[in-house]
Amino acid sequence: MAHLNSGRLNLSLLRDFQRTDLFALLDSIEGTKAIVWDQQLIAPFELISNIISFKEHKVVQNLKFGSVQWSMIEAQNVVYFIRPTLSYMDAIAEDIRASESNRNCNFHMIFIPRKCILCEKRLETLGVFGSFTSIEEYSPDFFVIDSDVISIEWPLCFRECNLEMDYSSLYQLAKSLMTLQCAFGIIPTVYGIGRLSKILFDFMNKMKSELISIENNVVSVIDQLILIDRSVDLLSPTITQLTYEGLLDEIYGINQTAIRLPPEKFITNDDDQTSAPAKKSQVGKFYLNSGDELFKKLRDLYYLRVGPVLRVSAKNLATQFDERRTAKTCESELLNCFEIDSINPFIESCIGRSVDIITVLRLILLQTVCANGLKQKTLDYYKREIVQTYGYQHLLTLNALEKCGLLRISNGYGMSYSGLRVKFRLTQESSKSNNVNVNNGDNQLSLYQGQVHDVYFPFTARIVQHIDQFGYRSFNDAFTRNNKPDPNLPNPNVVFEENQSTGNLRRRRNSDTTSMQSTSETNDKLVMVLFIGGCTFSEISALRLLSQKEGVNSEFIIATTSIINGKTFLQSIADTLSTKMKN
């Protein structure tokens, strides 16, 4: 984990705080312990500590929630690490009743990230609340993904905030930001883009009393905080990622830096007949982060720039897209506003061939955003064809997408993609149309410098670049001119600037101040970009590439509610139907 303190912020401090609080909580429970893990929490907690460290605190067993065999329990205490979900309380009550006939042990509950009164009431109703020796909460705040990436790992944030109007994730995000400022100082300047950004900042203001005690003790290390509501840029999650790391995520999925590769990827021609079957049963799990120097160099590169040796591997990744690979041409045409006002023949063909519904929805959503809404006739046609081809159950999916603003009718209001595309230079000619020969040396390969998609550069990254180079007012003017809010509805694309008092402790450039938070001295600003609703690996790569660009005098720390791709983003919105969607 040494790579975590290699950036401008020593993010290993956050991890150390998490470990200290976690192990103090475990040590407060006397005797041996068996932890029953909510399966969605296992991977995030691996970012805090490994299994060996848990053993040092008398944890003798780690079990998965829902598959506990009570006859195998050896510990004096059973500790549930669980998210506050009502349906889980029913299952836990059944566990406790089942354990009574096998053995006696003490039960403990640790809610992640905080207690829930409704869950406790449900346990009382089920008659098992008194079976718990203790019920506590543990809030990890930001999980440290890499030396410049942190996340609260709340993948349903976008759905909860836009469909259910549940802002629990924003409260947790605000709390995490306050903890961050306790460690690294108050962030003096805050910019916000989007409705959820304003709600988040209001939460932060209500929590400011927590900062009074440290306001005059910690030097400000982060210069600016830019809050970006995912709804401001709905294009980036729908477009095929073409960085090396982005491709890996699109094809295999990367979860909390871990990637699982199918076993056939490890069988070579040199394997004999006896060893090959054994390898087929093994799944390769690898961790991808800046601790691996080779991966650090490759991850943000456009897949055709990864070098002569790995270029073959990257091309093989790209060819595994099948329909998504063909869909890149359709994406390029839509992004360049080509025939966006009518039924798209390629999308129509995909539906007719029963192509993966996620692929179809990504393209339809892409067309919706590029056209600033679809004509009623076009939207009705797509919905009818999807229901007839994939089943009526997807009506709920389509309804959820409409409520989130991903699918909508053109009514003259909203953001004008065509105007933003020109003003913020969001697209370029396709690399295919340029007839680039990637074998002609560095001069030709330089054409791919800075690319993270085929023709598109993420709008979120352009927002950050514009604020950095031209200032907030210039961005506000350009953004407002291309945004026409519906007068009958609250403006979803509100933009604001706020200043937070830091006393006399603003960081001085190249000063003699020795701060445990900062690992380098530089004239560059340190800017935290926070995505509310998730961000993609391509957006992370775009910001890293921007920091290396001449004329950009900032380094970026990326914070997010979760890291997403097109598939996980759509499945989080329609999560009740995710099992019915084809993988």
TrEMBL record:
Q: What domain of life is recorded for the organism? A: Eukaryota
Region feature Disordered, mapped onto this chain: 481-520
GO BP of this protein: vesicle-mediated transport
Q: Name one Pfam family in it.
A: Sec1
Query: Family assignment?
Result: Belongs to the STXBP/unc-18/SEC1 family.
Designated name of the protein: Vacuolar protein sorting-associated protein 33A-like protein
Classification lineage: Eukaryota, Metazoa, Ecdysozoa, Arthropoda, Chelicerata
